[in-house]
Amino acid sequence: MKQRIASRISSIAPSLTLAITAKAKAMKAAGESVVSFGAGEPDFNTPGHIIDAAKAALDRGCTKYTPSSGLMPLRKAIAEKLRRDNGLDYEPSQIIVSNGAKHSIFNACFALLEEGDEVIIPAPYWLTYPEVVKVCGGVPVYIEGKKENQFKFTAEDLERAITDKTKLLIFNSPSNPTGAVYTEPEVRAIAEVCERKGIFVLSDEIYEKLCYGGVKPFSIAACSEKMKELTVTVNGLSKTYAMTGWRLGYLAAPKDVAKAIDSFQSHATSNACSITQYAAIEALASPDSEVQAMVDVFARRREKMLALIAEIDGVSAVKPDGAFYVMLDVGGLYGKSYRGRKIEGSIAFSDALLEGEKVATVPGISFGADDCLRLSYSISLEEMEEGLRRIAHFVSELS
Known about the structure:
Blueprint: H1 7-10, H2 16-29, E1 35-36, H3 48-59, H4 72-86, E2 95-98, H5 101-112, E3 118-123, H6 128-135, E4 139-144, H7 155-161, E5 166-172, H8 184-197, E6 200-204, H9 225-228, E7 231-236, E8 249-252, H10 255-268, H11 274-284, H12 288-310, E9 316-317, E10 325-329, E11 337-338, E12 341-342, H13 346-357, E13 359-360, E14 362-363, E15 372-376, H14 381-397
Parallel strand pairs: 1-13, 3-4, 3-5, 5-6, 6-7
Antiparallel strand pairs: 2-8, 7-8, 9-10, 10-15, 11-12, 14-15
Cofactor: pyridoxal 5'-phosphate
Keywords: Aminotransferase, Pyridoxal phosphate, Transferase
EC number: 2.6.1.-
């Protein structure tokens, strides 16, 4: 009998982030008092003028197909954004609008990877990267970002990992899950290795606007024209404009890569939602002050979360410079027991914490960091304080 499910799909692990968020929501719906640190989205509503732009598009009857790569006015707006914010000069034909940045990442991997190509993924990593690489025929190769270096890898680490099978580096700055932001000199050193070795880079810059304390990200494609020809830059509107449910991302790529992706997308999904595209044009015209107001709130939450973590014995955290996550190091508590249940590993820790204290976190094993839990500070200060109080109580109960 033939195998029912294709091996390329059956080997893919479901998203732990979405699973835990769904479980926490179900517990809340059942009347339980749950604090969830699992959110991977801003807890703000989409700005009103962006919503109004979508309503206006509906009223104008803009409900038909668009070009598979996106509306030309939107691709021009994205090209202008890349010039203004990132120092990158792309023609609209080099920009492909997709159904979220995750879709853009899949498209890039599908277009670039042959069966058996190695893809270097720095750990801790966003849990989707390895799964996308595997379903596209690639082989994930992990390099470790050291805690003492804010979870960042170095150019030397990269060089040691490259083999004659290496095709692609996935580079994420600011990072999910660590919040690490690479400096311009660090990015240039990594780019020099990629240029010399002829390695493509998929640069995921979805959190670029969410940085704190004057830290600024630097786009690796801006290092040189040679590097630009080896880079697919991925971004979107989900985090910056609180538009996670609208599902719109985009990529900018060398001409041949963009053409290949457009051809594939025209058969796979066709265009992203037409209404969302009109809303995106309005979003990209938004003043920076709107985004900064949200960033300022995240910055205050970040400081509060770190201060509360510092008061809990046996755990620690590396201060993040971007995104809205903290990696809580709980590895020193493994081997202890909670109500007779021995805690070994981040899944066991997270499960016991959810069952015992009604606090939802994401186990670090899903990010390649089993000694950590990921906490999102995209929740209210009141929820954060209560959640960390419960975590402190949980830790005090360990024996």
